[in-house]
Structure to design on (175 residues):
């Protein structure tokens, strides 16, 4: 992996072609302890199926998918903007599955992904973004540094990949 990283929005017709690489990032993050909806062990077919669903959402215009690619064109990070909202919330988007492969961390990729999702949300007419993160984790500190406002904590909201409970902190950001 080279030091050069490109962050970009994935086109509606190209998301399906990135499914395998996105699955690699998801599996690595879950194996590294990230509580992102999946438990250990995470079978590859389950990770691939998840990303196929995301790709379908991108093709229907329901999601924005951002990727970070290294100099060889390998996906090393990703984040999504869920755009399909109830009728009374057309101005809101949910930020989901902020993932950076462990081999690519501590290089500012997550900050770049967040900046890109903010830019894309603005282009899509979104003015309020919402997300959640494991309480006390690295992501929580990242979001605070990026200007997200803490709403509150829900104890025992989810499970870590190894099965123990974790609390979740909710955040919002006005654009």
């Amino acid at each position: 992996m080279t030091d050069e990283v490109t962050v970009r929005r994935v086109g509606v017709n190209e998301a399906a072609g990135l499914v395998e690489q996105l699955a690699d990032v998801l599996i690595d993050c879950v194996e590294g302890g990230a509580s992102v909806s999946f438990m250990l062990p995470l079978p590859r077919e389950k990770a691939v199926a998840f990303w196929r669903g995301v790709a379908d959402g991108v093709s229907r215009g329901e999601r924005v998918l951002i990727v970070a690619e290294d100099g060889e064109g390998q996906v090393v990070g990703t984040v999504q903007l869920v755009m399909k909202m109830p009728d009374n919330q057309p101005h809101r988007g949910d930020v989901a599955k902020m993932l950076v492969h462990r081999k690519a961390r501590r290089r500012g990729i997550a900050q770049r992904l967040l900046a890109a999702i903010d830019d894309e949300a603005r282009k899509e007419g979104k003015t309020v973004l919402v997300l959640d993160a494991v309480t006390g984790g690295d992501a929580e500190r990242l979001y605070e540094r990026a200007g997200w406002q803490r709403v509150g904590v829900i104890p025992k909201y989810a499970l870590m990949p190894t099965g123990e409970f974790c609390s979740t902190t909710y955040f919002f950001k006005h654009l």
About this structure: The chain has one domain: 5-128.
